[in-house]
Design a protein that fits this description.
Largest interface: A-B, 91 and 91 residues
Distance between the termini of chain A: 48 Å
Radius of gyration of chain A: 29 Å
Keywords (chains A, B): DNA-binding, Transcription, Transcription regulation
Structural class of chain A: alpha/beta
Number of domains of chain A: 2
Pfam family, one (chains A, B): SIS
InterPro entries (chains A, B): Homeodomain-like_sf, HTH_RpiR, RpiR-like, RpiR-like_SIS, SIS_dom, SIS_dom_sf, WH-like_DNA-bd_sf
CATH topology of the largest domain in chain A: Rossmann fold
Number of helices of chain A: 13
Protein name (chains A, B): RpiR family transcriptional regulator
Oligomer: homodimer
Chain lengths: ~290, ~290
DNA sequence: TCGGCGCGTGAAAGTAAGTTTCATGCGTGG
DNA sequence: CCACGCATGAAACTTACTTTCACGCGCCGA
């Protein structure tokens, strides 16, 4: 591990160096990134000295040779770069923002939603849910609006590894299907706010049939908690409608991903096989190379 | 300004590289810091290829030569703060992993996909796309399989702020609809691999009608680039099917989010109003309090 | 004042690293 | 089955880096 502070070290022993080496050292300290870009001849010329002296300088600071100096300088210079800059955490995009700012702000918030969701996700609850999913003969997933995408995604994932899972975009269909669940089956309801009536209804029915009910929401104390045996929570802070709730979507998908991997891990070989088979199935739809 | 994400860029270009170059690329991506320390001969040997190929690889990723690669890699490696504990970056979940580990690994990779995507996203391309979206009288979005969710999400977002946008899950429907596009309209194709035949066909038709075509893919040098006026790239490293491609989904959604915010920002007041109206529309579907 | 001594220095020789060129062989499409 | 083109490594070549060596300058003692 390169002990940090090569630049610091150099400026420390600057006075101990010979005049010609000092000229080199000063250039290096003044702009490490620039020095890293130069060739030895180039740097020697800039310091009004010979290549030999540059090498001597490298040895003086304890390095093998010039290439080593270059990469150390590049590394050091990179480390120095201040972390991006003040992003309005969870805040709105300022009106005059340029696109780079927009991207940075969104990415920051999105990534944070994912990370914070993972942090607060309860492994034990996850495990219990995975257990239930594994034991279930049938799985129903329901979500309305934006959460419907996530429900659908989850359904597809489970299906791909050979689990019987359903997602009905239509509440009526969902209610009908859920009414056929029994003990040992699982119903999952997804609702960011935890107050989506339709989702509650679906879980309600599922529960009354003896199925295990699972809620995925951002608000653990919301009504959905009352109809769920297990509550999984996301941690998206979105307050405004600014970003069309993408952060919460990402958080939900992350949770779904965790559950999916958990289920797949229970039967590694079979899941892997299933994934390969399904991947193979769409291969013919791919074109081989760039077209003329 | 060292444009960020060389590693990210390399993994994006991976499939476009020749086999021998891919071997080099994989070594570089696997351990950038180590690669930076090696001499070109050394690296070539490790990749079981010749120095010439290493040079070709450097050129392929847009660098002058090998020394430049070394420096960039050193810089990149330094900037990268190693994840707290040993998480197999982009790797598989170890068989005996407990749920806390699974969650940590997934969240780490998911969050990284979002961040790295943002880093390498070209603001100018985004801007151009937003411009086109704003000017369009009609927008068509198409994606197959998992990318279909993202297409659908985008369609819904645009629709919510009053833009005329379509998403047809069926290729035939999509082709038909796209055939009716004209100059000034926009077609967006989403394909993680960039090789999905159906998506290419859709963009092809759109282009032939004079519409502006946009591609969203993880691999900028894939066939989809040939039929797109603007190429937006994600930066997900997923190699295995482990997580059912969630990371790439998140990356795509992030890009979509950026575009959406960009479009909305052009007409702030109107967009805000539209969002409020649509939010209000589903309010009646929400339950007020926890139910006894 | 002069002669040696040693250190800093750059020129030049020498070596290693990086780059270009080219011939081969393999796979693809006609 | 042939022709073409592309990927590839061997070898020639160039550039960068390293070592060697001799010069010169300043210091010291005679």
């Amino acid at each position: 591990m390169p002990e940090p502070g090569l630049i610091v070290q150099i400026s420390g022993l600057l006075p101990a160096l010979s005049p010609a080496e000092q000229r080199v050292a000063r250039l290096v300290v003044a702009d490490p990134a620039d020095a890293a870009r130069r060739t030895i001849t180039d740097l020697a010329t800039a310091a009004e000295t010979s290549e030999a002296t540059v090498i001597r300088f490298c040895r003086s600071v304890g390095l093998e040779g010039y290439p080593q100096l270059r990469i150390r300088l590049a590394a050091e210079a990179a480390r120095r770069v201040e972390p991006p800059d003040a992003r309005v955490v969870g805040g709105d995009i300022p009106p005059g923002a340029d696109f780079a700012q927009i991207i940075a702000t969104i990415a920051f918030n999105d990534a944070r939603a994912v990370e914070e969701t993972a942090q607060q996700l309860d492994p034990e609850v996850c495990e219990a849910v995975v257990e239930a999913l594994n034991a279930a003969t049938r799985i129903e997933i329901y979500g309305a609006g934006a959460s419907g995408f996530v429900a659908s995604d989850f359904q597809q994932k489970l299906h791909r590894i050979g689990r019987t899972a359903y997602y009905w975009p239509d509440v009526h269909a969902a209610l009908t299907s859920v009414a056929l669940l029994g003990k040992g089956d699982v119903a999952i309801g997804i609702s960011h706010t935890g107050t989506t009536g339709d989702v509650l209804d679906v879980l309600d029915v599922a529960r009354s049939r003896g199925a295990t009910t699972v809620a995925l929401t951002n608000f653990p104390r919301s009504p959905i908690a009352d109809v769920a045996d297990h509550v999984l929570t996301t941690a998206a802070r979105e307050t405004t409608y600014r970003s069309g709730a993408t952060a919460s979507r990402l958080a939900q998908l992350t949770v779904v991903d965790c559950l999916f991997v958990g289920v797949a891990a229970r039967n590694r070989a079979k899941a892997r096989k299933a994934l390969e088979v399904t991947a193979e199935a769409v291969r013919s739809r791919r074109v081989a190379r760039r077209r003329g």
